[in-house]
Amino acid sequence: MDPTSSRTVVAADGAAAGVAATVVMTAVLEAGRRWSMFHTHPPIRIIRTVLAGSPERRLPAEVVLATVAHLGYGASCGVLFALGTRRRRMVGPPQGVGYGLLLWFAGYGVWVPAIGAVPPPQRDQPGRQLALVAGHLVYGIVLAEGLRRLRDLRRAATPLT
C-alpha cells in the first residue's frame, strides 16, 4: 500500500474488513453451535461475565449487546491488522491465518478464560474450541483478503502523478 495513505483511511479500511470478517466468522460459530458443539455463543458468555458476573446469568438484550461488542472487537482487530501491515506490499491469506490464530490464542488461550467466560482450551469442550479455531482462521483470511481488495481499489482509484 502507498505509505503516504493516511492512517485514518488505513484504519477505516481495517475496520470495514474487520466487520465483514466478523460477520463471516459468526456464521462459522453458528454452524458449530447448531452441530451441538456448544450451546451459547462465546461473545454472549463474555458479555454475561463482564456485565452480570457469570457466563450463566442471562441478561436482557444480551444478543444485541454481544453482537455490538463482537462487531466492535472485530473492527478494532481489523484496524490493528491494517495499521500493522500498512507498509507491506502484499497482504493475503497467509498473514490472515497467522493473525487469526494469534487472536484465538490471545482471546481463548489468555483473557477470556482469565475472566471466567470460557474454560482454557485444554479444559473446554473440544467442539467449541474446534469451532473457535475454525472461526478465527476464517476471520483472518476474510480480513486479509478484504483489506487486500480495499487497498487494490484505492490504488486503482489513485491518479498517477
Structure, explained:
The protein is an all-alpha fold. It has one domain (7-154). 73% of the residues lie in helices and 0% in strands. It contains 5 helices and no strands. It has helices at 7-34, 42-52, 62-84, 93-115, 126-157. α4 (93-115) packs across α5 (126-157). The two termini are 16 Å apart.
Domain module tally: 1
**How far is the first residue's CA from the last residue's CA?**
16 Å
In total, the number of strands is 0
> If helices are DSSP runs of H or I spanning 4 or more residues, what is the number of helices?
5
Amount of beta strand: under 5%
Largest sheet: none
Element order, helices and strands?
Answer: HHHHH
Quick check: average pLDDT? Answer: 93
| Radius of gyration, in angstroms, nearest whole number | 17 Å
Which key terms come to mind for this protein?
mainly alpha; 161 residues
Describe the structure concisely for a colleague.
The protein has 161 residues and is an all-alpha fold. It has 5 helices and no strands.
Would you spell out the secondary-structure blueprint of this structure?
Blueprint: H1 7-34, H2 42-52, H3 62-84, H4 93-115, H5 126-157
Helix pairs in contact: 1-3, 1-5, 2-3, 4-5
